Amino acid sequence: MSSIRNIAHASSLSRLAGKFIVFEGPDGSGKSTQFRRLSALLAQQSVPFITVREPGGTVTGEAIRAALLDKKHTGMTVRCEMLLYMASRAELCETVILPALRRGQLVLADRFVSSTLAYQGAAGGLPAADIAAVARVATRGVLPDLVVLFDIDSDAAAKRLSPLLDRMEAKGAEFHRKVRQGYLDQAKADPARFAVIDASRSEEQVWAQLQATLAARP
Question: Can you give the pTM of this predicted structure?
Answer without folding.
Answer: 0.89
